């Protein structure tokens, strides 16, 4: 009677199954996925190519409606895209004929959120990401890492509470990638965002995530869940890699990846 209702998870997937249908066949991309992400958590999805990572993000983003199962954000069913959920991809999709700040404001335009206050917030984010000096430049003049930072600012400018990141670092050189990992990690923490990161870099998943999910394919399923201990979780990604136990975790996730890769080959 006097029980307080438990707060709903930020993201909840319950028995999510998704089939892609074509004229001639139905392909099961993911099957019976159950996942709970609490507010402020950072989780990572790893797994062989084709195991349904992008499909799961598209479902969370409301871009795909799952064939079966429930998708809830804050306990509410997802019925389409919303400003609450930001999606960032490997490719930055910046328009070269628009300046950096106009690319950032475009996100606000699309969501119908272009107010003076939100513009000021976007400029503040550009400042935070050390991009304020290039705000009048064209994306063509920027390095890959800077372009990804602009894409991140454009996503954050709409103030989503959930961020979905689909291999955002994979086109970058190693050093840039490490720097951007730290920047994104600290920025998302500071702004108390909930995040789901897809990556094929196992070390990145351990360095950034609170939990790592290893998926298998055909159909995509959760094979295992790896909890990252607090001292690694709380360190910024660059330092996390030097923490005690990091190598052991890497070997553990590596082994899990071998299991799902062998399974995928039918061994
Ligand atoms: P990942 O991101 O893990 O590489 P995806 O979610 O992109 O995997 O794809 C999962 C499976 O679904 C793959 O076998 C892929 O070929 C298939 N798939 C993805 N998108 C479509 C689509 N639009 N139509 C048909 N099959 C698709
Ligand atoms: Mg993908």
From TrEMBL:
Q: Which Pfam families match?
A: ABC_tran
Q: Does the keyword Transcription apply?
A: no
Q: Which GO terms describe its molecular function?
A: ATP binding; ATP hydrolysis activity
Where's the ABC transporter domain? 11-242
Checking SUPFAM superfamilies in the record gives:
P-loop containing nucleoside triphosphate hydrolases
User: Keywords on this record?
Assistant: ATP-binding, Nucleotide-binding, Transport
PROSITE patterns in the cross-refs: ABC_TRANSPORTER_1, ABC_TRANSPORTER_2
- Keyword ATP-binding in the entry? The reply is yes
Q: What is this protein called?
A: NitT/TauT family transport system ATP-binding protein
User: Source species, please?
Assistant: Brevibacillus centrosporus
